[in-house]
Design brief:
InterPro entries: Neur_chan_lig-bd, Neur_chan_lig-bd_sf, Neur_channel, Neuro_actylchol_rec
Protein name: Glycine receptor subunit alpha-4
GO molecular function, one term: transmembrane signaling receptor activity
Radius of gyration: 27 Å
Keywords: Membrane, Receptor, Transmembrane, Transmembrane helix
Number of helices: 3
Structural class: alpha+beta
Shape: elongated
Oligomer: single chain
GO cellular component, one term: membrane
Helix content: 40-55%
Mean pLDDT: 80
Largest sheet: 3 strands, antiparallel
Strand order of the largest sheet: 1-3-2
Distance between the termini: 22 Å
Strand content: 25-35%
Length: about 140
């Protein structure tokens, strides 16, 4: 899947660099502290401290870059499966004629039958999705 690079900048806005000095801890940023369900953290790179000039003052700034790779399985479960379920439920009105096989039903009868069927189908689809999603997410 795709990769993202995010830059995070930490800067003092209230104190100038003469008053406040910002430095990285010798240990830096550890990867063990960062866990996400939708991305793998591939790399963290700390950048050297810089001074940023604003008007007549300079402020200390620290920044680091994180590189992420998207988890394919999470994307499928969180984006594609719900989208597919929404499309399938929206197609129920097109499938209503073939559900009963009776072509002589009136519009009100078809609407009533579709409403009763969609009450059950929506709940079942929602339950199946949640069981699969949470079984993967917690397991």
């Amino acid at each position: 899947m795709d990769r993202q690079t995010c830059t995070v900048k930490i800067q003092s806005y209230a104190y100038t660099s003469e008053t406040l000095t910002i430095e990285w801890h010798p240990k830096g940023i550890t990867r063990e502290d960062i866990v996400m369900s939708s991305f793998y953290l591939e790399d963290i790179r700390t950048l050297p401290p810089v001074r940023v000039g604003v008007f007549n003052n300079s402020h200390a700034e620290l920044s680091f870059e994180m590189r992420f790779k998207r988890k394919l399985r999470f994307s499928i479960l969180a984006v594609y499966v719900p989208s597919l379920l929404v499309v399938m439920v929206s197609w129920l009105s097109l499938w209503a004629k073939t559900l009963k096989g009776n072509w002589t039903m009136t519009g009100a009868e078809k609407a009533d039958r579709l409403e009763r069927f969609s009450r059950v189908a929506s709940v079942v689809a929602f339950a199946i999705f949640n069981i699969a999603y949470w079984a993967y997410y917690l397991g």
